[in-house]
Amino acid sequence: MTATVWLPCQGGTVEEYSLREPVGWRRPPGPLRCRVAFAAAHVVADPHGENLPGAPTAIDWDATLAFRRHLWSYGLGLAEAMDTAQRGMGLDWAGAQELVRRSAAEARTLGARIAAGAGTDQADANLSSLTDIAAAYEEQIEVIDGTGAQVILMASRQLARVARSADDYRLVYDRLLSQVRRPVILHWLGPMFDASLAGYWGSPDVEEATEALLSLVVDHAGVVDGVKVSLLDADHEVRLRSRLPEGVRLYTGDDYNYPDLIKGDGRRASDALLGVFAAIAPAASAALQALDRRDVPGFDAAMGPTVPLGRHLFSAPTFYYKTGIAFLAWLAGYQPGFTMIAGLQSARSVPHLVEAFRLADAAGLLPDPDLAVHRMRALLEVAGFAP
User: How far apart are CA 292 and CA 159, in angstroms?
Assistant: First the structure.
């Protein structure tokens, strides 16, 4: 029997919506081969914790680690303690350390791939010395490297505030890259994701910033696995990846244009480090499995329907996309409740979440339609929507 639910529409009306039959997405028999693909995962809040803005992080560890096993089961790598996990928006460094330790231990048990973000968010917000900023990075690098996770050098709010030129960025990153023991991923997060990172790499002009980044990568190519770019500008990404040294990957962080960037242009292709992959893991895995078979139509068929959902989840204000990721995990039954650290479940409107529900269903990402309908009805009732 088809699962149905009455959904609110614009203008105060409602309509009966019927969900599609669930899709039986196949898990890969082994690691994905065609691309390196990381899903940046969210954290599940402990409903018994305060989890107010500014309060200590309270995490539901069982549900959080179960979600990571879900991602790994589809052949994806895990990008841990990144902005999707509310790094800088509720997840403090103490919580991030514990998160990386637990996830890395789980990854070792399963033989799964994990990378994790090292930043400077444990440092005093008023920090003014480039030397102290580098030291803050070094502290986090040591913790993450010690867990066995690959290091992602996250963009630093403190560095963006203190640096006055590309030379200041270069001073800090030269120091860090001269010390790392294994190749790292560099992280360029645009201001649409975090306004405090405007002008990163030393210039508000993207082309000038790109030149500064490229110079750094060329000089340290032996210890740079890749560059993760989240500027939501596909043309810029294609130009940048064509200029990267041989062997240095471009990890797309473009949650709008990821299918074409991952598919490539016949010369080069982007690998992936994406928050949207946490929401679309089964479909993303199916698409990459198809690419492993050189089945481009199969790739398009699996990935294409996820694009409207991705664009909706990451619509402005983009930095609140985490709310949609957690909401869909709840609808799909991957976590018991729809609560978030720092109370971020309130960051998107009910109409926004209703549209996310529709688009996730259209993409075949609600594995249990009856459960999804039950939870959607509960949310609408609490919000005051009457059928």
Answer: 40
